[in-house]
Amino acid sequence: xxIDNTSTTSRARAPALHRTPxxxxxxxxxxxxxxxxxxxxxxxxxLDLVLRVDSVEEHLAEVARMxxxxxxxxxxxxxxxxxxxxLFSVATSDPLGAAGDQLQxxxxxxxxxxxxTTGELLVVRDYRAEDRWPTYTPRAVARGVRSSLxxxxxxxxxxxxxxxxxxxxxxxxxxxxRDAVVDFGRRxxxxxxxxxxxxxxxxxVDDLHAAMESRSVIDQALGIVMAxxxxxxxxxxxxxxxxxxxxxxxxxxxxxxxxxxxxxxxxRTGRFTR
Length: 274
Prior knowledge:
The chain is an alpha+beta fold and 274 residues long. The chain has helices spanning 28-52, 56-68, 95-107, 111-118, 136-142, 175-229, 233-247, 251-263; strands at residues 76-83, 86-92, 122-124, 147-155, 158-167. Strands 2-1-5-4-3 form a five-stranded antiparallel beta sheet. A hairpin with a 2-residue loop joins strand 1 (76-83) and strand 2. The longest helix has 55 residues, at 175-229. Pfam families: ANTAR, GAF_2. This is ANTAR domain-containing protein.
């Protein structure tokens, strides 16, 4: 399985976890005071993403980047979804995130895969003391991953993906940062769900257009065969079908050859627009 779309853009940023100049978290009271405005900022950023970005790949690359922007303590992020029944890492924030996801696919185990299957939130405080994934864990440690937080992405009551945040130090995803990533994942689930639904709709439309174009070509070939053989439409279709079976080729391809041979050029199928 290949990693796809490492995001390098820097557009609307997700609200960052506020920290003091000395690197320590600000007081709990100050974090609570900012919670309402941060939530509003996150909602606005997600709405902007839905309205601004068209392709599913861009949607998910932006989600990965925005998740990494939640805090400078996050080393990398990755988004994994199920498409066509297969795991697909559609976006990572940087090479560490790509490695963290790909190592799980290679080992066929890890927090992203488990979160997708169970819909559970999974926290690894220190991979050097982790024993749930015996194949994946030592490989992750060798690549510099020390901790992680995996949040199931849910939309319309179903788990549609998993957001993994990776840390290069132990115990990164505790307290306020853990809460911030979980809250981001809750909001991001709807965006991921919309992106996947849009991708499915585009695929369905493309399939419909292909079917309409094939039907148009077959109709043209039927007309040609009817004129040449002085037969009915049913008889002409039977002739094309026998040619398709005898040559082990699709009926639409046989029809395209008939039209091209008679007209001297490829068939015109009309214009189908979304």
